[in-house]
Specification:
This protein is an all-alpha fold. Helix content is 73%, strand content 3%. Belongs to the SLC35F solute transporter family.
C-alpha cells in the first residue's frame, strides 16, 4: 500500500521521541528525589541545632555510616568469590580508606562553615562542586560535553544566584560575619572534597558495583568518623538533653541520610555526577519552601523564579547525552572481574574509541566498550 512505510516510520519516530521525553523527565525527577532527601536532612539538623542545641554533625554522620555498615558491608561479608569483602579489601583497601576519609571531611567542613559565614555564602560557594566535578570527569572519566551541557550548567548557576539575591532582599543572611573568610574557605574545601567523592562514586558504580561502594564507605566511614567523634564531640554528646523528640529527630536525620547515600549511586549511574550535583541545587529551595510554614521565613517571588530557572537548566543539560572517549586498554585493566569480558585484537595498533552514552537503560549483556 502506498504510504504505509511512511506511516510506520512516522509512528516509530513518535514512539522514540516519547521514550526519550519520558526518560528525560525520569532523570530530572530522580534528581529531585535526592534534593527532597537533602531537604529532610537540613530540616532535622536545623531543629536539632537551634531548638535543642544539639550541635553534633560528626555524630549524625557516624549514625549514617553505621547503617551503611550494617546493611551493605554485611552484604559484602556474606558474598562469595571476587565480590567478597575480604577479596575487595585485599585488592583495594587503601583506595577506599582514602575515599572514606574524603567523604567524612567533606560533610564536616560544610556543616562547620555555617558557624563562620553566612547562609548565602554557603549556598553560592557550594556551587564550586560543579566545576570540580566537570574537570575531574573530563580528565579522569574522559567525559566530553557539548555546548548545550555548558548552557544548562550556566542556567542552573544563574538560578542559584537568583536565590542568593532573594536571600539578601528578605534578610536571610544568617551566620556570623567576623570570621567570614574562614567559613568561605571551609565551604570551598568541602565542595572540592564532595566533587572528588562524587566522581569516584560514579567510576565505582559504573565499573564495579553500587553495593561495593556503599559497603566500603560504611566500613571506613564508621571507623574514622568514630575516631573523630571520640576526639571532637564526646563532650557535646553529654550536653544533649535526650528525650523522645530528639531521638525522633536523630532517627529522621539518619533515615534521610541513609536514603540519600543508598539512592544516589542509582541516579549517578543513570545520569552522571555532574547531573546529580545540578539537581541538588534545588535542595535549598525545598528547605526554604518548608521554612515558610515551619520557621516563618519571608517569601520573595525570586525564589519561584530561581526554582524554575534551575529546572530549565536541568532539562537543558539532560536533553543531550554526553559522550565518553575511552581507551579500551584502560577499561579492561580496571573493569569489574565479574562483568562481561571484551575481547581485544591480539595484533595491530589500538586506537582510543569513542562510546556515546545513552539516556536509556544499560543492559548487562552488552559490552561497555566498542573498539574502532
Amino acid at each position: 500500500f502506498p504510504g504505509a512505510g511512511g506511516s510506520d516510520s512516522s509512528s516509530s519516530r513518535v514512539g522514540t521521541i516519547r521514550l526519550l521525553l519520558m526518560d528525560l523527565l525520569l532523570s530530572v525527577a530522580l534528581g529531585q528525589v535526592l534534593s527532597l532527601l537533602i531537604c529532610g536532612i537540613g530540616l532535622t539538623s536545623k531543629y536539632l541545632s537551634e531548638d535543642f542545641h544539639a550541635n553534633t554533625p560528626v555524630f549524625q554522620s557516624f549514625l549514617n555510616y553505621i547503617l551503611l555498615f550494617l546493611v551493605y558491608t554485611t552484604t559484602l561479608a556474606v558474598r562469595q568469590g571476587e565480590e567478597n569483602l575480604l577479596a575487595i579489601l585485599k585488592r583495594r583497601w587503601w583506595k577506599y580508606m582514602i575515599l572514606g576519609i574524603i567523604d567524612i571531611e567533606a560533610n564536616y567542613l560544610v556543616v562547620k562553615a555555617y558557624q563562620y559565614t553566612t547562609l548565602t555564602s554557603v549556598q553560592l560557594l557550594d556551587c564550586f562542586v560543579i566545576p570540580v566535578v566537570i574537570l575531574l570527569s573530563w580528565f579522569f572519566l574522559l567525559v566530553r560535553y557539548k555546548a548545550v551541557h555548558f548552557i544548562g550548567i550556566v542556567v542552573c548557576i544563574l538560578g542559584m544566584g537568583c536565590m542568593a539575591g532573594a536571600d539578601v532582599l528578605v534578610g536571610r543572611q544568617q551566620g556570623a560575619g567576623e570570621n567570614k573568610l574562614i567559613g568561605d574557605l571551609l565551604v570551598l574545601g568541602g565542595a572540592t572534597l564532595y566533587g572528588i567523592s562524587n566522581v569516584c562514586e560514579e567510576y565505582i558504580v559504573r565499573n564495579l558495583s553500587r553495593v561495593e561502594f556503599l559497603g566500603m564507605i560504611g566500613l571506613f566511614g564508621s571507623f574514622f568518623s568514630g575516631i573523630q567523634l571520640a576526639i571532637m564531640e564526646h563532650k557535646e554528646l553529654l550536653k544533649v538533653p535526650w528525650d523522645w523528640q530528639i531521638g525522633l529527630l536523630y532517627v529522621g536525620f539518619s533515615a534521610c541520610m541513609f536514603g540519600l547515600y543508598s539512592f544516589m549511586p542509582v541516579v549517578i549511574k543513570k545520569t552522571s555526577a555532574t547531573a546529580v550535583n545540578l539537581s541538588l541545587l534545588t535542595a535549598d529551595l525545598y528547605s526554604l519552601f518548608c521554612g515558610l510554614f515551619l520557621f516563618h521565613y519571608k517569601f520573595s517571588g525570586l525564589y519561584l523564579l530561581s526554582f524554575f530557572t534551575i529546572l530549565v537548566g536541568l532539562v537543558l543539560y539532560s536533553s543531550t547525552s554526553t559522550y565518553v572517549a575511552q581507551d579500551p586498554r584502560v577499561y579492561k585493566q580496571f573493569r569489574n572481574p565479574s562483568g562481561p569480558v571484551v575481547d581485544l585484537p591480539a595484533t595491530g595498533q589500538l586506537e582510543p574509541s569513542v562510546t556515546y552514552t545513552s539516556l536509556g537503560q544499560e543492559t548487562e549483556e552488552e559490552p561497555h566498550v566498542r573498539v574502532a
